[in-house]
Amino acid sequence: MNAVTKPILAALLAMMVAACSSTVPPDTFEISSPSQVPVSGSTRAQVLIPEPTAIKTLDSERIVVKPTPYSVEYLANSQWSDRLPRMVQLRLLQAFENTGRVGAVGVPGQGLAIDYQLVMEVRRFEIDARGAATARIEISVKALNDRNGNVVRTRIFTAAAPVGGGENSGYVAALDRAFDQIAGEIVSWTVGLI
Question: What are 72-82's pLDDT values in tens digits?
Fold first, then answer.
């Protein structure tokens, strides 16, 4: 390496380091748990909420956008604060707790004497970008009697909310509104069932 190439290489290396350090981190979002769920009745049952299953597209921190029924993109410069199934699990747990209408609710490893489990699959949690952008969520729920292993009932919950505005926060707000609706329905259905 001669005396001329050393300064050029040093300058190129300095520019590459500066470019890497100036990368803007993605905006990080969360969904909220509904604080007010209209629930009639109550139960002394203890409910376990295992982490929902989901296809790999949804089992990540990336926010899914579907421009067509068969293609998947992700919301630019945005991410969830955790893997989506984990966030759904914990927000549903909080929604149950916020009602004060169940004996106890927890996740695996918390040592509950479990009466029922909610076995869930997140089927959709996305922005449908065909036409007017709409948040769409679909979650399949099986209420499982943990004492005898029987499935008490199965139901598929769906919710949709229009996107207001074209910013990333508008897309996430629509997903949050749809989740608020679906979480409230899951809690009310479960409490009425068990």
Answer: 999 999 999 99
